[in-house]
Amino acid sequence: MNTISKEHSGPNGVRGIIFDLDGTLLNTLADIGDSINAMLAEYGFPGHTMDDYRRFIGNGIRMLVMRALPIEGRSSEMMDRCVQRARERYWDNWNRKTRPYDGINELIDALETKGLPKAVLSNKPHDFTVRYIDEYFKGRHFSVVLGQSERFPVKPDPASALEIARQLDLPPSTILFVGDSIVDVQTATAAGMRPVGVGWGFKGTGDLKVNGCPTIVEHPLDILGLI
Ligand SMILES: O=C(O)COP(=O)(O)O
């Protein structure tokens, strides 16, 4: 059954919200970092700090693995093996330390009450993205959940964001796109959506400000004031 309400529109004309996943809805940093470090250790490569992973995450798993590998480990054959092994390690370690950020569940519930359709768009592989939403947001409804797959190029290409707008049957200009990284801001802008940067994620607000993100919120419930 299609539960998308086309009726809702707040005073600011917002009719839908797309959320980034890593660093926006969920703090997945430690599970990702631990998994990649475990993969690196298997191949005898040095690991990285969690702060390093804040910088490495954001452009999909292949880019993450490439950034984590030393230059001499980046042949395409080695990359393929390491990406596969990283996926396996992460599949087994995905939910040990991951938690929603404070205030996220309250925000999701408030949006639910308002009847505003919600979606998730991540550069994390699609199967992981769906698994996270199913596990951490049980009983809460997202109209569309899209992770990275063969179907669309990774963010900041706007194709996947525009596909969500199509599925929500909403004009892109009525959609808030909420994320912690400049990749999300670029995606929103390229899709003609309204970018909202968050201050609690992996990246901090410095990059968002330098790159001209027009709106930055410090707490999830601040988003309610934008719709
Ligand atoms: O896994 C990544 O590269 C980033 O995922 P995100 O798009 O949910 O931040």
TrEMBL record:
Its EC number(s): 3.1.3.18
Pfam family, one: HAD_2
GO terms assigned for molecular function: phosphoglycolate phosphatase activity
Reactions this protein catalyses: 2-phosphoglycolate + H2O = glycolate + phosphate
UniProt pathway: Organic acid metabolism; glycolate biosynthesis; glycolate from 2-phosphoglycolate: step 1/1
Gene3D superfamilies documented for this protein: HAD superfamily/HAD-like, Putative phosphatase, domain 2
A GO biological process held by the record: DNA repair
Name of the molecule in the record: phosphoglycolate phosphatase
This protein's GO CC annotations: cytosol
Membrane-spanning ranges: none
Family of this protein: Belongs to the HAD-like hydrolase superfamily. CbbY/CbbZ/Gph/YieH family.
